[in-house]
Design a protein that fits this description.
alpha/beta
Length: 191
């Protein structure tokens, strides 16, 4: 039985860090959002200060679809995957991206487990300000982080295996363990 875990959360919440911890707990490959975005974004403004061109996300969506198609076609039938996505409630592009993951899981007959990662505004701002994030083309804009926390909601589409986890005061390993425990309950016969 294959499992697709989708970690949803705002930039800085710790999606990739938690994914790495979770990957060792459930023997899964991590496929980070930046695998899809960075090949395209690195072609643009290296400083990351210029506004992104309209339509750029269409190209990152194509990269994501190519990766998902390759997983569907070529990965072993019991291979597990953890994906990350910064989905925002009410955003059509976020919902389309979510559906790409749902469809790939369906094609592989994998158990799909969406996990919303939440974090308090102040802690999220602290995390997002880390200079190391810029090296990976990750946002470090504290004001944008605060604004997003105040005005937006992490994507919350109904799903039978959905989990919402507040990671403000728990470590990445504790977060990963909680997700692993939830994943086990989603498997047929809890295996």
């Amino acid at each position: 039985m294959s499992v697709f875990v989708l970690l949803l959360g705002f930039p800085g919440v710790g999606k990739l860090t938690i994914a790495k911890e979770l990957g060792s707990l459930i023997s899964a490959k991590t496929v980070d959002i930046h695998w899809f975005n960075n090949p395209i974004l690195r072609l643009l403004d290296e400083e990351g200060t210029a506004p992104l061109p309209k339509g750029i996300w269409e190209y990152t969506g194509r990269v994501r679809q190519a990766v998902l198609d390759a997983i569907t076609a070529y990965s072993g039938p019991s291979a597990n995957f953890i994906f990350t996505h910064a989905g925002v409630e009410g955003d059509e592009r976020s919902a389309r991206t979510y559906q790409q993951f749902v469809e790939a899981a369906r094609q592989r007959a994998a158990v799909f487990v969406p996990v919303r990662l939440l974090c308090a505004e102040e802690e999220l701002a602290r995390r997002v300000s880390s200079p190391a994030r810029r090296d990976h083309l990750k946002t470090t804009d504290v004001e944008t982080s605060r604004s997003r926390s105040q005005q937006a909601v992490v994507l919350n589409l109904p799903h039978q295996h959905a989990l919402t986890l507040d990671v403000t005061f728990i470590s990445p390993l504790e977060s990963a363990a909680a997700i692993r425990d939830h994943v086990v309950t989603c498997l047929p016969n809890g295996s």
